[in-house]
Amino acid sequence: MWPLYAAGFTTAFGAHGIAANLGASSAGHIRSLLVLGGLLALYDGAEVLLKPVFGTLADRIGARPVLLGGLVAFAVASACFVLADNMALLWLARLGQGAAASAFSPAASALVARLNPQAKRGRAFGSYGFYKSIGYTAGPLLGGALVALGGLRLLFAVLAVLGAAVAGWAAVAVPTVAPLPRARQTVLDLARRLTDGDFLRPTTALAAATAALSVGVGFLPVSGAAAGLGPVATGAAVSLLAASAAVVQPRAGRALDAGRITSGSGITAGLLITAAGLALAMLPGILGLLLAAVTIGAGTGIITPLAFAALAAATPEERLGQTMGAAELGRELGDAGGPLLVAGVATVTTLTGGFAVLAALTAGASAAVVRRTGRSTRT
User: How far is C-alpha 161 from the geometric centre of its chain's CA atoms?
Assistant: First the structure.
């Protein structure tokens, strides 16, 4: 399982390590906010378009070759910029990284499910989420240190080595998992499965959790700065949010496996806790900032492993890659939609109003999730 956790770390570190340091890089490539925005959008845009495609491919040819191919492609894309160090290659490298992550991320999730019995999937997805959270936390910090030492080329070089190393590790340690026979699936069959409550409810919870995380990372520093807090305090709050999510995820997964909670009750509680964290962000000063960070992190840390375990339990094993790819698409939409919603409301009212609207929507989502997701401890 460790190479799969490393793959999760790689995609998170690659996404946030570069995104957090493109604008501050001293390499001279970023000459306008429009260019910066385009570079930031490339990675996520590729993931939105390609994750369902590669998830389906993983079901067809096996998740292991898609995992290995994606990691190798990530290393090659990163190395392109290291070798050439020009603007055109920066765009190509960022697009290539996003496309590669679109392959190995859903493949890794599918393998986490396939390689663990149902009774242990909560813990497995909790551990997988833990290492992704570490990647999200370490990306801006370690990425900034690497850029300070050697510019963007050093950061891309480290990512190339990381991708190649994890690919080699996975080639040795991840067993071959043969694709399962699949019944013929029409477009209508796919649409029915992806609009069924067993898929929509966990995916909606994942989207809400990701939206809250993205809003917390993006807007808690803005709220802190408006209250007169310095960058150290606001940066600590963001790190606290990520650390809270990382610590909670394995514990939530273990509680599910032990039968202490059901996925439905846990996800509902996670959504309500996340909503409470967004409401706490409306409080002024350092106390509101820190309470919001811890609470949002805890709520999303509960949701993530339980929702993925629920998706795995409700999906035929021969379709796991397709389901994980589609669920990841939901997360990406939440990642983009949450900040857009809060920013739009804040433009008309205040940032406090933006937090309030997202908190209300997140709390409202819990009512939809609880109806059927909680019927068993696994679905």
Answer: 22
